[in-house]
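Service request form, structural biology core

Requester: graduate student, group of Dr. S.
Request type: structure prediction, single chain
Budget code: on file
Notes: please return the result as structure tokens.

Sequence provided:
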Amino acid sequence: MAEVRQGNTALEHFMLRGKIALVTGAGKGIGRACAELLANAGAQVIAVARTTADLESLARAYPNSIEGWTEDVTSDQFMQRLGGLRQLDVLVNNVGTNRPQPFIDVELVTLDLMLDVNIRSAFRVAQAAARIMVNQGTGSIINMSSQMGHVGAVNRTVYCMTKHAIEGLTKAMAVELAPRGVRVNAVAPTFIETPMTRPMLDDPQFQRNVLAQIPMNKLGQVEDVANAVLFLASAASGLITGDSLKVDGGWTAH
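Core staff response, request fulfilled:
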């Protein structure tokens, strides 16, 4: 194995010193892991979540590099605050939700919630971030998608629909914004062990069914997704836009 030396040019491409990054849904799970890794790479991170206690614990762990915003990303108040930033180099558009229901039993309240959170808010946040980045002439937007944005699944018609929409949004944004210096990509994880998925994965039969679809035969960890986000946020992915990086252990390769 080649020796890794301090100051190695290739490794420097992954560093984010002098960059401002904003991560939505940063209080727990994938978003928190992304905020921590981006901070470790040198970025000044704005962590956005609805639970103040989660953000306070992040700020205590990273007092010089993570600032917490207690905000609801679907609100006009948050959009105004985001739009007031003078610099934004990285957006991790991570907020999302899921309420699995059989297709014929999907309730309108479920449909409206997931369309609002998973699509409408993601669009608005990306749009506000893109306006700042276009003015700078540079930036990287990472939309959090899912392997379900590439396949279908039982009891997940609404979730699949919203994540397919994120994939389409990512491609269209990338094509339009590329000439203005802004890259746009998606990260598409498989089932990741988080507080949101824990109740499902605690069902032994459900976990067996999930693992049967993953050729690598293991569940994802939040660090797996954060690593992909850092790559797409950094100069190491400088010629990549309009892509979806699947962190799925081979699920969608079937």
